[in-house]
Amino acid sequence: MEATSRAVLVSDPAEANCALADVASLTPTAHAEACRYPLAPSLPLIITSALGADTAADSNPYLAEVARAESTAAQAHPDHCVLRCAPMDVDLAQVARQIKDFSTVYGCFSGGRVPWLAVEDLLDIAAVLATEPARRAGRVYEITGHESVTVATAVDRLASVLGSRADYHVLEPAQLVDALCVSVGWSLDVALRVPHHQQWIGTEHPTSPLVERALGRPPRLLETCIAHAAASVAGPAPEPDPGTADKLAAPTKGTRS
Predict the structure, then answer these.
(1) What residues are paired with 143 via a beta bridge?
(2) Are the CB atoms for 202 and 113 separated by under 8 Å?
(3) Tell me: the pLDDT tens digits for 193-229?
(4) What pLDDT digit, counting tens, does each position of 75-95 carry?
(5) pTM for the complete prediction?
(6) Mind giving me the DSSP string for 12-39?
(7) 113 with 204: CB under 8 angstroms?
(8) Which residues contact 65 (CB under 8 A, 6 or more apart)?
(9) If we measure between CA atoms, which residue out of 210, 206, 102 comes closest to residue 158?
(10) Are residues 92 and 226 in contact, defined by beta-carbon separation less than 8 angstroms?
(11) Rounded distance, CA 62 to CA 24, Å?
(12) Across the chain, what does the average pLDDT equal?
């Protein structure tokens, strides 16, 4: 798992003729990056955010941070729209990495049914919005995939595609933060964001018809999201520290939460 499950995305203006900024990253750097696009005023700004950002005050600090970034980016550029997205196949990539490296997944995901979204569907919608100013106009859209399954089910399906077994262990937030700091070497500031992000990932959301309405076809199948996540770990990975998986299961005591 990484602190930047999603990266800031900038579309090629020659292809989509827009700037696409993802403020649903876990890093303040990505949020700040979104604010530089108004320096290119000839391009409309499409802000990709997270489902639930509109209720951030009543939910978790991750969503509150995303909501602040979304507002900052929107206020800085008059020609914009916001896409609040469900968790995507890129959010499953680090789950796939844990399966591949350790045959085990540790986390503190919530237990809701997640309407996983293929990132290609997001890009296809962005391309439509880039050419239709009336559909931007500061509007906010919610985007999801078609089929909802829990993280535990996604783990099972990922393991099957990867030809591996996978044990799924739920950690308390303090355990996960401790493991990331002690075993993986992350700073406390970064590690503290991860449990809130994972809890958002596992939050249940209703499915949205937006993909079909915008593109005239259903969202890509869940199997596509699973396949993309599995393919993301097909190449060689950095050699993990010895015992990392065991340390994740048994964090040291005294961690701040």
Answers:
(1) 85
(2) no
(3) 899 999 999 999 999 999 999 999 999 999 999 999 9
(4) 878 889 999 999 999 989 989
(5) 0.82
(6) -HHHH-SEEEE--SSSHHHHHHHTTGGG
(7) yes
(8) 28, 31, 193
(9) 102
(10) yes
(11) 9
(12) 82
